[in-house]
Amino acid sequence: MPRNLDMTALRSFVAVAESGGVTKAAGFLHLTQSAVSMQLKRLEESLNLDLFDRSGRSIAMTAAGEQLLSYARRMLALNDEIFNRLTAHEYEGEITLGVPHDIVYPNIPTVLRRFNTEYPRVKVQLISSFTRRLKDQFARGEVDIILTTEEGLDQGGETLATLPLVWVGAPEGTAYKQRPLRLAYEHNCIFRQGVQKALDAQGINWEMAVESDSTRTIEATVSADLAVHTMIEGTEPKHFERIQHGGSLPSLTSMNINLYRSALDEGPMISDLAQFLRASYQSASVAAGMTTTLPVDLRV
Hints:
By secondary structure, this protein is an alpha/beta fold. Helix content is 41%, strand content 23%. The chain has 9 helices and 12 strands. Strands 3, 4, 5, 6, 9, 10 and 11 form a 7-stranded mixed β-sheet that branches. A 3-stranded antiparallel β-sheet has the order 1-2-12. A two-stranded parallel ribbon has the order 7-8. The two termini are 29 Å apart.
């Protein structure tokens, strides 16, 4: 006899796994913590499987839980696509999203795909530029929602993640050993001044090998092992390699990835896009810091 999975329970299961805890998942789903816990328990009972290992101080996903997570994500995506393609035609229009070019990957494509599933008739115009330019455009009302990379946080914004800057160069490159150290940066890169100060403080001579408005120019120079560069951890392209310098280069500061959204539009489209961006960075943080181990507040 066929049995059916509870889509609501599956959604709670995925939300807990991606957010890192029942508390956050309950907030995302607009449910109480007890309701989410009950749904997880009901899901385990319906499958007659333990999805979490509760034997230790922290709770880890079982092998069955990890396997279910992959299936559940696909089932929910298909469910949402069917529902929205057939019923969600009331929302039309265009949203402009601004993102610094160096953090477009890996998060933004996933966010855009998810938003398109929820709002198939809404066009998202993606603008990729530098933080300073994006903030100027946002202040003029030309962009609805922006992400920025900056050390602080301006009024009206929220910080989605705080990540360290790392030194990057060519795979198996040696440019980082040269003195003066050859740097490659865009003219408007917000990182370069702080990096130069850190080098000065450590007494390392440096020179600008390349200054350009083209990201491709910087990438080509660095991947050719003619200079080094800095990027936010986790955003390095495949043709760059994180430099294991063993202290020969200074440690670098951490940067905030901030979100600013227009206060003029309180409709669900911008709110949902902002929520998808939040969830993307929260999910990435969980994946980077937890692997398959989940926090204690997952106990159900």
